[in-house]
Amino acid sequence: MLADVAALLRCPQCPEDDESALVLERRTLRCPRGHSFDVAKQGYVNLLGAAVPHHADTAAMVAARDRFLGSGAYAPIRDALRARVHPVEPDDAGRPLTVLEAGAGTGYYLAGALGERDRGLALDISPAAARRAARAHPRIGAVVADTWAGLPVRSGTVDVLLAVFAPRNPAEFARVLCPQGRALVVAPLPDHLAGLREALGLLEIEADKEAHLLARMAGYLVPDGHTDIRFSLRLTEAAVADLVGMGPNAFHDRSGEAGPLPDEVGVAVRLWEFITA
Ligand SMILES: C[S@@+](CC[C@H](N)C(=O)[O-])C[C@H]1O[C@@H](n2cnc3c(N)ncnc32)[C@H](O)[C@@H]1O
Ligand SMILES: [Zn+2]
């Protein structure tokens, strides 16, 4: 719920150095200078401060992602993230963590990462995604926000930040993390879903993606190890439709290009761990 995370949020309309927390009064978030943001009836708040861009994930894309992830297809990725957030299962003695997911989509990974008393902040540029993330877990608050525009989050408040198949803003990630904080970044390896991409003529993964990632992090976040997650996925027709429908390829008409589909496909992603520089 937003009440769990309101104190982490800062006003997108006030000067950047104003770190005052927003206060939730009934169904409105307010800053000390009088800006106010209404909480939608579905429980999320829009702090974009601008129109929703046309490339934001649509309700249909979010529904496809929800069905695909709900089938358990990517559960090994969720389990790996949880294991990094909580190397030891959380117990009552442990300090509750604040976990933020940037580009959270449906909130699937964030919900999976939370221990018993942790709280989660799901940020996404898509209102449809924020709507879904708001009900992914009782202690998740969901906010519409643009990772590139700067996070509406107070500095040094986050223990663990997740960015899973989502845009990264290293300066902002480093700013919101607390001194011992960690960023966990999941990105596809070059052979991720290779058989499926080939059969459907889908967008390829750029070969130099990883070099790019590390170069952009430099100065803000330092790599502290990585784990490769590989497993094979049985592909039903419904899974293929949802995989295509939930991703950027949904914006391209690829009909007519499809070859025979493989029965199984390899999932190959790298989970990076970063600490602040
Ligand atoms: C490939 S999806 C990943 C969603 C989720 N992390 C998952 O893996 O299920 C990318 C997400 O990033 C969001 N996104 C794209 N651009 C963004 C931006 N500039 N700021 C915040 N979110 C953004 C999209 O709306 C989408 O939900
Ligand atoms: Zn303000």
UniProtKB/TrEMBL annotation:
The residue ranges of the Methyltransferase type domain are 100-183
Q: Which UniProt keywords apply?
A: Metal-binding, S-adenosyl-L-methionine, Zinc
Coiled coil start-end: none
What positions does the entry give for S-adenosyl-L-methionine binding?
Answer: Y74, T106, G107, H192
Domain (23S rRNA (guanine(745)-N(1))-methyltransferase N-terminal): residue spans on this chain: 11-48
InterPro entries per record: Methyltransf_11 (IPR013216), RlmA_N (IPR048647), rRNA_m1G-MeTrfase_A_prd (IPR016718), SAM-dependent_MTases_sf (IPR029063)
Where do the TM regions start and end? none
Q: Spell out the Pfam families in the cross-references.
A: Methyltransf_11, Zn_ribbon_RlmA
What GO MF annotations does this protein's record show?
A: metal ion binding; S-adenosylmethionine-dependent methyltransferase activity
Q: Where does Zn(2+) bind?
A: C31, H35
Return the protein name: 23S rRNA m(1)G-748 methyltransferase
